[in-house]
């Protein structure tokens, strides 16, 4: 999956949901996507900044989640997705991906 496509798909969703009240960094195949939800509206940039929650995943697993082929919780439990930091923010990711 192209990194620009991943960014654009996330951008479309992130900017149209309520503020997540924190920062999340996705690391997809070593490419960072930073979501800042500390203001009234979520913003997304390709910056590699420190975040309240960091989620590392391959583009293949991300595509499978998007297509409903893999359960996100099972992907975390099996180590296909790695999460560090604020788990409360991690739980808000579902609203960004649906």
Helices and strands in order, then pairings?
Elements: H1 3-14, E1 23-28, E2 31-36, E3 43-45, E4 53-57, H2 59-66, H3 72-77, E5 81-85, H4 87-97
Parallel strand pairs: 1-4
Antiparallel strand pairs: 1-2, 2-3, 4-5
Structure description:
There is one protein chain. The chain is α+β, with helices and mostly antiparallel strands. The chain has one domain: SCP2 sterol-binding domain (Nonspecific Lipid-transfer Protein, Chain A, 2-Layer Sandwich). 38% of the residues lie in helices and 26% in strands. The protein has 4 helices and 5 strands; from the N terminus they run H-E-E-E-E-H-H-E-H. The chain has helices spanning 3-14, 59-66, 72-77, 87-97, and strands at 23-28, 31-36, 43-45, 53-57, 81-85. A 5-stranded mixed β-sheet has the order 3-2-1-4-5. Strand 1 and strand 2 (31-36) form a beta hairpin. The protein is globular. The relative contact order is 0.21. The model has no long low-confidence stretch (mean pLDDT 89).
């Amino acid at each position: 999956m192209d990194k620009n496509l991943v960014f654009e798909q996330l951008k479309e969703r992130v900017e149209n949901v309520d503020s997540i009240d924190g920062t999340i960094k996705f690391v997809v195949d070593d490419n960072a996507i930073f979501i800042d939800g500390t203001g009234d509206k979520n913003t997304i940039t390709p910056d590699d900044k420190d975040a309240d929650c960091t989620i590392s995943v391959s583009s293949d697993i991300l595509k499978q989640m998007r297509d409903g082929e893999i359960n996100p919780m099972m992907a975390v439990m099996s180590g296909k997705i790695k999460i560090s930091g604020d788990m409360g923010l991690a739980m808000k990711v579902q609203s960004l991906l649906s």
